[in-house]
Design goal:
- The protein has about 325 residues and is an alpha/beta fold.
- The protein has two domains: about 10-185 and about 315-330, P-loop containing nucleotide triphosphate hydrolases (Rossmann fold), CATH 3.40.50; about 190-305, Helicase, Ruva Protein, domain 3 (Orthogonal Bundle), CATH 1.10.8.60.
- The chain contains twelve helices and ten strands.
- It has a seven-stranded mixed β-sheet with strand order 1-3-4-5-2-6-10, sandwiched between helices. It has a three-stranded antiparallel β-sheet with strand order 8-7-9, with no helix packed on it.
- A hairpin with a 7-residue loop joins strand 7 and strand 8 (about 260-270).
- Mean pLDDT is about 80; it is low at about 5-10, about 20-25 and about 40-45.
- It binds adenosine-5'-triphosphate and magnesium ion.
- The site of magnesium ion (MG) has 4 residues, from helix 3.
- This is AAA+ ATPase domain-containing protein.
- It is found in: Endosome membrane.
- Keywords: ATP-binding, Endosome, Membrane, Nucleotide-binding.
- InterPro entries: AAA+_ATPase (IPR003593), AAA_lid_3 (IPR041569), ATPase_AAA_core (IPR003959), ATPase_AAA_CS (IPR003960), MT-severing_AAA_ATPase (IPR050304), P-loop_NTPase (IPR027417), Spast_Vps4_C (IPR015415).
- GO terms for molecular function: ATP binding; ATP hydrolysis activity.
Length: about 325
């Protein structure tokens, strides 16, 4: 069980679909911000208006559910953030697992306001059945009691769950997550923003129009798919250098100090180029190799190879669950 306090890494702004300037929000962002226990109590002091005690994030894989939790952890301010996974709670000793669940909640109550984040909650809280193990059932029971039990005060505690197969969850556990927020695949604007975030500060020649075209062509890609696509594209210039047979001298920022422009850098070129020198990349000294920019062609080449990971069958099931029990994070 790990306890995290004030970890500054992922902030709301590093998650696309959240741009204050354009008044667009990340899916479920408003709910999560007002649900952060400390915030509601301290900032609003709303009497008789209790914040949500259980929020379930569900959606296709790679849409940033775990990533959102990281942002919540960072932005939680005074709240204590507990991040646990099912393996943390599994013990081979009889009765030990329930005790761990109990201790977790006891600790959260002690350090409130606190947030308990359980990633991949489906593995812990699937529907109860006759042929499951005794210990699995006990964990679920303890969870249900701890989340909403008689005589237990859960004020100031938010349980945040994430899953990509929400229909597996036990109905009683599902009820305890009062808010069920669907984190869908990114729309065109979010995809454009994701490309920008992923390309980041890497040396590139991409224009605003290029980002727009890429976003249009990546319909059905998740945030994770886009990050893989850009990662692959960033390797394309490296591959080009490795397979080049001719290089030519160019000027550009020195690899040692980008503020100094030097004229003797070597960059791959076609053998027909008038200034081409026949050599392989192994002959080029490390500090003389020009840093090739990431271009639109590089991304297009990767686009032909990197396919989306989510298929329509998965989406249909998630959509059906959303219609039955959930709420769209983008509404
Ligand atoms: N909205 C987003 N903004 C920026 N990056 C994103 C976004 N969504 C996904 N990513 C990228 O995809 C990666 C994977 O996201 P994450 O692990 O949160 O997916 P997940 O929804 O938890 O998937 P799974 O359901 O499989 O656990 C992140 O580390 C991040 O780089
Ligand atoms: Mg995840």
């Amino acid at each position: 069980m790990r306890k995290k306090k004030k970890r500054r890494r992922v902030v709301w702004l590093s998650i696309s679909s959240f741009e204050k300037k354009k008044k667009r929000e990340m899916p479920g962002e408003k709910e999560l911000q007002t649900a952060t226990p400390g915030d509601v109590e301290v900032r609003y002091r709303r009497r008789n208006r209790k914040p949500w005690q259980g929020i379930l994030l569900f959606g296709p894989p790679g849409t940033g559910k775990s990533y959102i939790a990281k942002a919540v952890a960072t932005e939680a301010g005074e709240s204590t953030f507990f991040s646990i996974s099912s393996s943390d709670l599994m013990s081979k000793w009889l009765g030990e697992s329930e005790k761990l669940v109990k201790n977790l909640f006891a600790l959260a109550r002690e350090h409130k306001p606190s947030i308990i984040f359980i990633d991949e909650i489906d593995s812990l809280c699937s529907a109860r059945s006759d042929n499951e193990s005794e210990s699995a059932r006990r964990i679920k029971t303890e969870f249900m009691v701890q989340m909403q039990g008689v005589g237990l005060n859960n004020d100031g505690i938010l349980v945040l769950g994430a899953t990509n197969i929400p229909w597996i969850l036990d109905a009683a556990i599902r009820r305890r997550f009062e808010k069920r927020i669907y984190i869908p695949l990114p729309d065109i604007h979010a995809r454009k923003e994701m490309f920008r975030i992923d390309v980041g500060k890497n040396y590139n020649t991409l224009t605003d129009q290029d980002f727009k075209v890429l976003a249009e062509r990546c319909e059905g890609y998740s945030g994770y798919d886009i990050s893989i696509l850009v990662k692959d594209a960033l390797m394309q210039p490296v591959r080009r250098v490795q397979s080049a047979t001719h290089f030519k001298h160019v000027s550009g920022p020195s690899p040692k100090d980008p503020n100094i422009i030097v004229n003797d850098l070597l960059s791959p070129c076609s053998p027909g180029d008038p200034h081409a020198i026949a050599m392989s990349w192994l002959d080029v000294p490390g500090d003389k190799l020009a840093n090739p920019p990431l271009s639109m062609q590089d991304i297009c080449r990767s686009l032909a190879q990197v396919k989306p990971t989510v298929n329509n069958t998965d989406l249909d099931r998630l959509e059906a669950f959303k219609n039955d029990f959930g709420q769209d994070g983008q509404e």
